[in-house]
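Re: that chain you flagged

S.,

Sorry for the slow reply, it's been a week of failed gels. I finally had a moment to sit down with the sequence you sent. For the record, here it is as I used it:
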Amino acid sequence: MSEKKGCSHCCLTGCLVFLIAALLGFWLLIRYAPKDAYLGAASRHCNAFAFEWCAQRAFAKLPLRDDEKKLLEPVSAEIKESLKSGALHRDDIERLAGRLVSGPLPWALLVLSFHAHYVAENPDFSPEERASAKISARRVARGLIEGKIQPGQLGEIVFAISVQPQNSLMAAAVKNLFHEGSLNESLKPTLSADLIRDSVKKMKEPAKDSHVPVSDTEINLAPLLQNELKTLVEEKSSESKDN
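Prediction finished late last night. Pasting the structure tokens below so you have them in one place:
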């Protein structure tokens, strides 16, 4: 049985960190900085440009098409301006990141990264198989983002690539988000062609449930990010009134 060398570092980073690194990376950059260095306008501008730097690096590595990455730029710009104006603070970015991690985003990126690193360039798969698997992965990812598919429907696929199938790979990944070594240990270092093919097959059913047309598998993460941002702003407003 042929083996496809797994890229666990890329897969896990791709599915969990690349997008939210724009938020969590920003938070880590400034978390331990002296507070005196972050006062007034200087503080707000520093926060904004730190976020912008992280966002650019994170978006560039997302397992999305270039045109899909560009769809995120307006939301990123809005967050940057909110940081500059003082409407958002560094603690708010941490909260926003937490909301994204606990939602469908990690699952969607996991599906896309699974295809990118275990199928896309796998010589054990014919061009037709690769193309079909790509369409299924994109339909599932979009279905997750749009709420048409529930993460639980991917349980068997997730367990198949985890070294501890009795545990939720997502739960472990979220819990150990900042501990790269622990994350890597959650994935099997290699996957056989049969296991990959079986996972791709199991992905077809939720792909159908997504009702995403085969002819239009565009993935737009901007509404998800925009919605979470809106919810955060509303929560801040409510908290402010309560105080």
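What I noticed first: Residues 1-18, 165-169, 171-185 have pLDDT under 50 and may be disordered.

Talk soon,
D.
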